[in-house]
Amino acid sequence: MFVWTPDMIRFMQAANEKSDYHTRLAAILAPKLSNCRTLCDAGCGLGALSAALSPYFAAITAADVSDEALDVLRQTIRTRKLSNITPLHCDLLTLEDRTQYDAMVFCFFGSLAETLHVARRQCAKTVIIIKKNYDLHRFSLTDQPIRGETASAACETLREMGVPFEFDARELEHGQPFASLDEAVRFFRIYSRDGAPGAITPEAVLPRLRRTDDVRYPYYLPQTKRLGILTIRMEDLV
């Protein structure tokens, strides 16, 4: 289970602040869910995608196992006066609630088997599953394979199951700003999959960064997220 730490929350908030990633992703997802009024954002994390999807739905339930992450969303709701988002602190994998949503979005949420289990229980019309559409970990200094299912693996499993789906490959920038080089080193030490953390030094990290004119965030880690977006109609998921 992914566990949000204060540092992780702080880094992600900074990345979201400096990027229109979630706004662009929401604009891609909304037409795929045009017949849906209610949505569950499953494993919503800090809720940035829920907030970006807010204009497209009558009601959004933003569910996550981390109450600390949901606190960020609660603040966003207050600041932006979003009246149609309800944070839900829960573990959807063990939840016995049978509330039905027109649509469910699973962005980097668990395995395909876990996702489909939840969707069968609570999704009435359309489920969207977003997976990493790349093979190497983005925040390592050496080539390290990513953990969990890739988009291609999920597609292959659905084909084997005989489940029809639509596939949409997208690339969206969602880089990481840093207040200092030391912050960048700390980031890599948290997220890196490299086998020797001691090798993560300012000298090793600096070539990955770009200098900026932003006084608050003078360093930036460019990162393009390559996404595989799978859309499944519940009538096809038997």
Mean pLDDT: 95
What is the overall number of helices? 8
Poorly predicted parts: none
Order of helices and strands: HHEHEHEEHEHEEHHEEE
Strand content: 15-25%
Shape: globular
Strand order of the largest sheet: 3-2-1-4-5-10-6
Would you tell me the structural class of the helices and strands?
Answer: alpha/beta
The rounded Rg comes to: 18 Å
Tally of DSSP β-strands: 10
Major beta sheet summary: 7 strands, mixed
Tell me the span between the first and last alpha carbons.
27 Å
Share of residues in helices: 25-40%
Q: Can you put this structure into words, describing what you see?
A:
By secondary structure, the chain is of the alpha/beta class. It is built from eight helices and ten strands. The protein has helices spanning 6-17, 21-29, 48-53, 67-80, 112-122, 151-161, 181-191, 202-205; strands at residues 38-42, 59-64, 85-89, 101-107, 123-132, 166-173, 176-178, 210-211, 219-221, 224-233. The strands form two sheets. The protein has a seven-stranded mixed beta sheet, with helices on both faces. The radius of gyration is 18 Å and the shape is globular.
